Amino acid sequence: MKKSTLMFFLVFVLAGCSNEQKFNELTESGSSSSNDAKIQKLQNENKHLKKEIESNREKMNDEVQRDALRESLNLTFKLLSAMGDKDYDFIKSISSINVKISREQNILIVDNGKDFYEVAFQSKMDLEDLEFRGYDLKDEHHIKLMMARMFNQDIKGSEGHSALYFDFVRSEDGRWLLDGFMTN
Question: pTM value?
Fold first, then answer.
Protein backbone atom coordinates (compact mmCIF):
# COMPACT_ATOMS: atom_id res chain seq x y z
CA MET A 1 0.00 0.00 0.00
CA LYS A 2 2.80 2.33 0.78
CA LYS A 3 4.29 1.48 -2.57
CA SER A 4 1.08 2.18 -4.43
CA THR A 5 0.55 5.44 -2.57
CA LEU A 6 4.10 6.44 -3.26
CA MET A 7 3.69 5.49 -6.93
CA PHE A 8 0.42 7.40 -7.16
CA PHE A 9 2.06 10.44 -5.55
CA LEU A 10 5.07 10.30 -7.95
CA VAL A 11 2.79 9.99 -11.01
CA PHE A 12 0.74 12.91 -9.78
CA VAL A 13 3.85 15.05 -9.17
CA LEU A 14 5.41 14.13 -12.51
CA ALA A 15 2.17 14.80 -14.35
CA GLY A 16 1.91 18.18 -12.62
CA CYS A 17 5.51 19.05 -13.57
CA SER A 18 5.03 18.18 -17.21
CA ASN A 19 1.80 20.19 -17.38
CA GLU A 20 3.51 23.12 -15.69
CA GLN A 21 6.32 22.95 -18.23
CA LYS A 22 3.78 22.88 -21.08
CA PHE A 23 1.94 25.81 -19.47
CA ASN A 24 5.20 27.78 -19.15
CA GLU A 25 6.09 27.00 -22.75
CA LEU A 26 2.65 28.13 -23.93
CA THR A 27 2.80 31.28 -21.80
CA GLU A 28 6.30 32.11 -22.96
CA SER A 29 5.48 31.54 -26.62
CA GLY A 30 2.25 33.52 -26.21
CA SER A 31 4.05 36.43 -24.59
CA SER A 32 6.86 36.07 -27.10
CA SER A 33 4.46 36.45 -30.02
CA SER A 34 2.75 39.26 -28.11
CA ASN A 35 6.14 40.95 -27.59
CA ASP A 36 7.01 40.41 -31.25
CA ALA A 37 3.76 42.10 -32.24
CA LYS A 38 4.44 45.00 -29.87
CA ILE A 39 8.00 45.36 -31.16
CA GLN A 40 6.80 45.28 -34.76
CA LYS A 41 4.16 47.91 -33.98
CA LEU A 42 6.75 50.15 -32.28
CA GLN A 43 9.18 49.73 -35.18
CA ASN A 44 6.48 50.70 -37.69
CA GLU A 45 5.53 53.72 -35.60
CA ASN A 46 9.22 54.66 -35.34
CA LYS A 47 9.60 54.48 -39.14
CA HIS A 48 6.51 56.63 -39.58
CA LEU A 49 7.78 59.23 -37.11
CA LYS A 50 11.20 59.32 -38.80
CA LYS A 51 9.52 59.95 -42.16
CA GLU A 52 7.43 62.72 -40.61
CA ILE A 53 10.51 64.34 -39.06
CA GLU A 54 12.38 64.18 -42.38
CA SER A 55 9.38 65.66 -44.19
CA ASN A 56 9.15 68.50 -41.65
CA ARG A 57 12.91 69.08 -41.98
CA GLU A 58 12.59 69.34 -45.78
CA LYS A 59 9.62 71.71 -45.46
CA MET A 60 11.59 73.83 -42.99
CA ASN A 61 14.62 73.88 -45.31
CA ASP A 62 12.34 74.89 -48.19
CA GLU A 63 10.87 77.66 -46.05
CA VAL A 64 14.31 78.84 -44.93
CA GLN A 65 15.50 78.95 -48.55
CA ARG A 66 12.34 80.67 -49.76
CA ASP A 67 12.49 83.28 -46.99
CA ALA A 68 16.21 83.90 -47.48
CA LEU A 69 15.75 84.31 -51.23
CA ARG A 70 12.71 86.58 -50.87
CA GLU A 71 14.32 88.80 -48.24
CA SER A 72 17.67 89.08 -50.03
CA LEU A 73 16.00 89.82 -53.39
CA ASN A 74 13.91 92.59 -51.84
CA LEU A 75 17.02 93.99 -50.20
CA THR A 76 18.87 93.83 -53.54
CA PHE A 77 16.18 95.88 -55.28
CA LYS A 78 16.22 98.45 -52.47
CA LEU A 79 20.04 98.54 -52.55
CA LEU A 80 20.15 99.16 -56.31
CA SER A 81 17.56 101.90 -55.96
CA ALA A 82 19.54 103.44 -53.09
CA MET A 83 22.74 103.36 -55.19
CA GLY A 84 20.96 105.16 -58.02
CA ASP A 85 19.62 107.77 -55.59
CA LYS A 86 22.93 107.94 -53.68
CA ASP A 87 21.11 107.17 -50.43
CA TYR A 88 24.26 106.59 -48.37
CA ASP A 89 22.42 106.31 -45.07
CA PHE A 90 20.22 103.45 -46.29
CA ILE A 91 23.19 101.64 -47.83
CA LYS A 92 25.09 102.00 -44.57
CA SER A 93 22.09 100.73 -42.56
CA ILE A 94 21.95 97.47 -44.56
CA SER A 95 25.72 96.88 -44.75
CA SER A 96 27.73 94.52 -42.58
CA ILE A 97 30.94 95.63 -40.87
CA ASN A 98 32.86 94.34 -43.92
CA VAL A 99 31.37 97.00 -46.21
CA LYS A 100 32.32 100.68 -46.09
CA ILE A 101 31.02 103.52 -48.24
CA SER A 102 33.03 106.25 -49.93
CA ARG A 103 30.64 109.15 -50.46
CA GLU A 104 33.23 111.11 -52.41
CA GLN A 105 33.81 108.37 -54.98
CA ASN A 106 30.38 106.67 -54.81
CA ILE A 107 31.94 103.28 -54.20
CA LEU A 108 31.56 100.38 -51.83
CA ILE A 109 34.74 99.18 -50.16
CA VAL A 110 34.62 95.53 -49.19
CA ASP A 111 37.20 94.16 -46.77
CA ASN A 112 36.27 90.84 -45.22
CA GLY A 113 39.75 89.82 -44.10
CA LYS A 114 40.58 87.65 -47.09
CA ASP A 115 39.37 89.91 -49.92
CA PHE A 116 39.67 93.65 -50.41
CA TYR A 117 38.05 95.40 -53.35
CA GLU A 118 36.18 98.52 -54.37
CA VAL A 119 33.04 98.55 -56.49
CA ALA A 120 31.37 101.59 -58.04
CA PHE A 121 27.74 102.26 -57.29
CA GLN A 122 25.33 101.18 -59.99
CA SER A 123 23.70 104.02 -61.86
CA LYS A 124 19.95 104.42 -61.71
CA MET A 125 18.20 101.62 -63.58
CA ASP A 126 14.80 100.17 -64.23
CA LEU A 127 14.17 96.96 -62.36
CA GLU A 128 12.90 95.62 -65.69
CA ASP A 129 16.53 95.65 -66.85
CA LEU A 130 17.46 93.10 -64.17
CA GLU A 131 17.53 89.40 -64.81
CA PHE A 132 17.72 86.85 -62.01
CA ARG A 133 20.48 84.32 -62.69
CA GLY A 134 20.54 82.25 -59.51
CA TYR A 135 21.39 82.04 -55.86
CA ASP A 136 23.59 80.04 -53.53
CA LEU A 137 22.35 79.57 -49.99
CA LYS A 138 25.59 78.46 -48.35
CA ASP A 139 23.89 78.04 -44.99
CA GLU A 140 21.06 79.78 -43.20
CA HIS A 141 23.33 82.78 -42.51
CA HIS A 142 24.97 83.33 -45.94
CA ILE A 143 23.42 83.78 -49.37
CA LYS A 144 24.82 84.91 -52.72
CA LEU A 145 22.53 86.30 -55.41
CA MET A 146 23.52 86.32 -59.05
CA MET A 147 21.81 88.89 -61.27
CA ALA A 148 22.44 90.46 -64.64
CA ARG A 149 21.79 94.00 -65.74
CA MET A 150 20.57 93.84 -69.31
CA PHE A 151 21.50 96.72 -71.58
CA ASN A 152 19.17 98.33 -74.06
CA GLN A 153 18.24 95.73 -76.63
CA ASP A 154 16.47 98.28 -78.87
CA ILE A 155 19.58 100.05 -80.11
CA LYS A 156 21.68 97.96 -82.46
CA GLY A 157 25.17 97.33 -81.15
CA SER A 158 24.35 98.10 -77.54
CA GLU A 159 23.09 94.69 -76.50
CA GLY A 160 24.72 92.98 -73.59
CA HIS A 161 24.68 92.52 -69.89
CA SER A 162 26.70 93.06 -66.78
CA ALA A 163 26.84 90.38 -64.09
CA LEU A 164 26.02 91.48 -60.54
CA TYR A 165 26.92 89.37 -57.49
CA PHE A 166 25.49 90.23 -54.09
CA ASP A 167 26.65 88.57 -50.87
CA PHE A 168 24.43 88.80 -47.81
CA VAL A 169 24.96 87.66 -44.25
CA ARG A 170 22.30 87.31 -41.55
CA SER A 171 22.95 89.47 -38.52
CA GLU A 172 22.46 88.38 -34.93
CA ASP A 173 19.08 90.11 -34.87
CA GLY A 174 17.94 88.13 -37.95
CA ARG A 175 18.25 90.87 -40.59
CA TRP A 176 20.06 90.28 -43.88
CA LEU A 177 23.02 92.62 -44.40
CA LEU A 178 25.06 93.36 -47.51
CA ASP A 179 28.41 91.62 -47.08
CA GLY A 180 29.82 92.05 -50.58
CA PHE A 181 29.01 93.22 -54.08
CA MET A 182 30.86 92.57 -57.33
CA THR A 183 30.26 93.29 -60.98
CA ASN A 184 32.16 92.71 -64.18
Answer: 0.64
